[in-house]
Amino acid sequence: MTNKEKVYEQLILLSKKVELDDTNQGVTAIEISEILKLQRNVISHYLNELAREGLAYKTNTRPVYFLDINIKKKKDGQEVKSSNDPFTKLIGYNGSLKEQVEQCKAAAVYPITGLPITLTGNSGVGKSFIANLIYEYAVEKGCIEKDAPFVTFNCADYANNPELLSANLFGYKKGAFTGAEKDTIGIIEEANGGYLFLDEVHRLSPEGQEKLFLFLDKGEFRRIGETGSWRKSKVRFIFATTEDLDKVLLDTFRRRIPIFVEIPSLEKRRINERVHMVHSFYLNEAKKIDKDLVISKNVINTLLSIKGNGNIGLLKNIIIASCANAYRNQLNNEVLEIDINDFPNKIKGSFQIKQNFYSENMTISKNHIIEEFPKLISTDENSIIKEEFKNITKLIQQFNTATIDNDKFKKLSTASMNKVLNDLSFNKTYIETDIVTYQLVFKIVENALSYIQQNYGIKYYGNTSKLLTYSVIMLKNISITETIRNFDFKYYEKILKKKLSKSYVIAKKMDSLIQNSLDYNCGELLIGYLTIFVNSFLLNIKTNCNAFIVAHGFSTASSIASVANTCYEEFIFEAFDMPLDVTTATVVKSIKQYLANLNTDKGTILLVDMGSLNEIYTELKNVITGDVGIINNISTQMALDVANRILNDEPVEEIVKKCAENNKTEYRYYEDPKKKSAIIVTCISGLGTAEKLREIMTKCVGDAEIEVIAHDYNSLVNDIQNNMLLKSHDVKLIITTTPLVANGIPVIELQNIINENGEEAIAEALQGVVKRKRLEDIKDDIIKFFSLQNILNQLTILNPNKIIDEVSKIISNFEYALNIKFESNLKLALTIHTSILIERLVLRDAVTSHPNEENFIKCHSDFIELSKEIFSEILKEYRVEIPIAEIVIIYEIISSRVKIK
């Protein structure tokens, strides 16, 4: 129990005495301070928080009096309503399950029909209980009617019988199958207006998932055996599973469920919440058997050490069994004493006491008087934070070895940081401090964030200052950090500097501002913590190019950088001011030190106010990798122009050339003598598909020192001579869905990537850049990930098996109509392209214009009509239309390989 909870409990107890004494005005901080032996200002701080939260009433007198808000309402003759939030029945709703509860509430109140939600977690963690709470919450908030149905359906009962599943889900018409003696409604209709809870959804067959996601899309269905008009039903869905969703659910089905809530296992819940469960379950049994209970401290410590399968369900069953055995053996006793011998035989000895949390027995009254839990001997309340720190260090290692990419690292590290911050916010036993210290640290953190916002344009919102204050205080606590300090921080710092260089620069500046103002030192750990925090919550990096402003004057460079950074709300420029009494050599030294913390592979741009551009490059070239551009005569207008082009991801040479022309000044461009190796992936249907193919290829190459880049097909083909990407990189290979010629650069078509020619091209491209992952392993991964089935699985939201059949029919019709037998490589190219095309049509993301469209309409009207006829069936099925531009692309794919008459 936190100090705040203890203060609130005492306020309730003392307020009840005030209720009976009309001469008593209320409770003072001093009264509670004397009881709890805590400082008066700490008590006052918590009482004021309770007043702000609406849990306490505060007078405007001297001294200040406080009352429990319910007692105050009673004294004023107001009706006291109990909490209307059903989730308050869930232990941990405002603690370790706070984030999960918020997600459940969001799904329930989303306009019109709510959002489908999936609850994941091991057996016994409480998924069914939470599903009921979601339903109750929706009723309470008026999202559904009070008498709305809540229907539960266990998919495991029909795992091997898809026909029976469909009959139960959608109902059936009389005579639809043997035994169908009357029209029968399904649970989809039964749940109309309410909730349908599908438990063990992983047991749904692919066919069942497909039928269900079609209903999720349209809200329409037919009973088995029905034809004609469609039926409608407004159903809210809750799904539950114990399995890994990526392995058991179709991508197409999973993508229709926007909210996934993971319920943690019992062993991952906080100690105080597990104590609450033990107390609550024993209290329920005390009321049932009408007996007071005394539970042995060994029983409590054993129950708090439970791990493995069963979770809350197992805990509850053990408690019920122990009460039953004690009741049988002590039938005539007024008070039942429960010890280890009352555990079921198969449980005895299977759990060991891992830690003595309690030093005394727990007494529970059947009359449910407010009781204080026995005090903990020792707790590991910091376990969540320690565990998440370990997770983050593992993620850093995986990020460094390219086991995970930047997006995955940010997603996973942000999830870990959220757990840390959530624990800091709602479990403050290890960060409690006096209010003066808290306010001091808060002010220091606030100043650091204000400096970062003013100079780097990085906005901070909401509780950022409060959360960082908790973090700084937490990192001071040796009991938290001593186990974390065991890892080699220097090793991780090098990785963070290289991989998250901009976040690291901001973190280092904040670390300096904070620690220089504190009267204690958090050590090097704070820099790493802040780097992850900045990367997760403050920085939204849109570019990897680095840019600097170097200008004479006390704050000229800082002022210009601040304007540009603030304007675009992005850390683009770092500033180096050169006061007149500071030598150029000193400033250059500072720039070198700064560059040592940056990854400059993506290019560097320097804006300077005067001096020799060649001399500046000569001084810095040894610490910069990648292309370098320098522009003279810096101005605010020039900085904004450069910033805009950096955000648009233009190449360094193009940026400095155009900006120098626009601002009528000189520039220098120095091409990186060591161009970074690259593989380009391109697709005629657009960047979206190319980007997805890039993700697949990036997985395959792993930590090889080569960049995989998605590029627009038309811009690559139309001006290949002047393509800036080809100039700025050492392009080893181009992977394309449609043939192209690229000035001596090897080109391989996607459908050929897993044959002998593809293997040779890949081996050649990766020569000299492979690191830990062997070339043979990369080839194996390419075969695995670039098989037709895998490509379609990752590129389409539709059922790949169904799509392949539909597309095969389309291709056959083209062969028949054109009187041409397509070679296998053309068939494969068309299969991939057409499958992706259908997905884009469904998602309303089709290509709507083509540079050759007008001429194509004049010359190939027959092909347009033919294509519309061939696609008519599938267009009707998905209720979409195919633009002329998409037909042009199909024509180009076919005509690039065969001659169309």
From TrEMBL:
GO biological process, any: phosphoenolpyruvate-dependent sugar phosphotransferase system
Ranges of residues in domain PRD: 436-544, 798-901
Ranges for domain Sigma-54 factor interaction: 90-324
Gene3D superfamilies in the record: 3.40.50.2300, P-loop containing nucleotide triphosphate hydrolases, Phosphotransferase system, mannose-type IIA component, PRD domain
GO CC terms of this entry: membrane
Protein name: Transcriptional regulator containing an AAA-type ATPase domain and a DNA-binding domain
GO molecular function: ATP binding; DNA binding; protein-N(PI)-phosphohistidine-sugar phosphotransferase activity
PANTHER family named among the record's database cross-references: PSP OPERON TRANSCRIPTIONAL ACTIVATOR (PTHR32071:SF38), TRANSCRIPTIONAL REGULATORY PROTEIN (PTHR32071)
Keywords: ATP-binding, DNA-binding, Nucleotide-binding, Transferase
Classification of source organism: Bacteria, Bacillati, Bacillota, Clostridia, Eubacteriales
Source organism per UniProt: Clostridium cavendishii DSM 21758
Every PTS EIIA type-4 domain range: 544-667
SMART domains with a match to the protein in the record: AAA (SM00382)
